[in-house]
Amino acid sequence: GRGLEDLGRLIPHELVARLWADVPTRTGDEAFGLHAAERWHGLTLSAFDAAFYHSSSIGDALRTLTRYVRLLHEAGVVQIEQVGDDVVCSERWDCQPEMPHQFREMVIGMWRRRLGRLLGRAAPLRQVSLRSPAPRSDAEHRRLLGPTLRFAAASDGIVLAADCLSAPVQGADPTMGVVLQRHLKDELARLPSSPPSLSPSAPADEDLLAAARRAIGESLGDPSLDIDRLARRLRTSRRTLQRRLREAGTTFHALVDEARRESALGYLHDPRLTLAEVAFNTG
């Protein structure tokens, strides 16, 4: 073998997808992904896990998930949107082959259980959605994901009450959280700007602004971030990016300021963080 010279190396997507398709089939367990989440949710396997558990609030934990999901899978995209009194959280993987449904169910199972651990009680989810169709028997799915489970949905995700965002994380150390956030930013900066085997084409024009906002949010605090690096990450040219931002009535610097403002407002809800820590965390 090659030894353990690079413990941080990501496992190739094709191998992950093949394993998650093959192993559950061999076991015959229709809820294999959820049973995996039941066993693994309490483990802290990486700096990402530790930062998640040392977030200052539930909202901060979800922002950590959106910013650093690429450290878990380079094609992973987490979206969080507030709709009235609801917060809708969903995840997708922009790659081929598609992630098997057992893997997707494991992720949603982990979300539900880890949110419960952060809150110190069962997560009050208003809905749990799975893209996969209902299995022959859905008893285990409903036991592990709750009575609000909906199959054959448009996306894999959860819905929780918006007032949960300000809830403090039980047992968190905010100072440790700030240190871990800085480490994650450094790790994210080391990733290739574009994984061609997973994302062979640039975002569609109508998605470019959203992709730019997401990339900037993930890179707050990275002093090397500029419009040229952003353009490379979005797999487009500087000129095209500037033109699209101009057509949308904004600029690169305006998007950076917007991301910093939104991030700072989220952190300011936590009275345990000093202004210096907020400034440090938002770059």
Helix-strand blueprint:
Elements: H1 13-27, H2 32-40, H3 47-53, H4 58-68, E1 76-83, E2 86-93, H5 101-119, E3 125-129, H6 139-145, E4 149-150, E5 156-161, H7 174-190, H8 205-218, H9 227-233, H10 238-247, H11 252-268, H12 275-281
Parallel strand pairs: 3-4
Antiparallel strand pairs: 1-2, 2-5, 3-5
Helix pairs in contact: 2-5, 3-4, 3-7, 8-11, 9-10
Task: For the structure shown, list the relevant keywords.
283 residues; alpha+beta; 5-stranded mixed beta sheet
Quick summary:
Helices cover 49% and strands 10% of the residues. The chain contains 12 helices and 5 strands. Strands 1-2-5-3-4 form a 5-stranded mixed β-sheet.
What would you say this structure looks like, in words?
The chain has 283 residues and is α+β, with helices and mostly antiparallel strands. Helix content is 49%, strand content 10%. The protein has twelve helices and five strands. The chain has helices spanning 13-27, 32-40, 47-53, 58-68, 101-119, 139-145, 174-190, 205-218, 227-233, 238-247, 252-268, 275-281; strands spanning 76-83, 86-93, 125-129, 149-150, 156-161. It has a five-stranded mixed sheet with strand order 1-2-5-3-4. β3, α6 (139-145) and β4 form a beta-alpha-beta unit. The chain is globular and about 50 Å long. The model is unreliable at 1-7 and 196-203 (pLDDT under 50).
Q: Write down the secondary-structure element order.
A: HHHHEEHEHEEHHHHHH
Sheet with the most strands? 5 strands, mixed
SS content category: alpha+beta
Low-confidence stretches: 1-7, 196-203
The termini sit apart by 41 Å
**What strand line-up does the widest sheet have?**
1-2-5-3-4
Kindly state the percentage of residues in helix.
Answer: 40-55%
Q: Strand portion, in percent? A: 5-15%
Tell the overall outline: globular
**Radius of gyration using CA atoms only:** 19 Å
The chain-level mean pLDDT equals 84
Number of strands: 5
Number of contiguous helices: 12
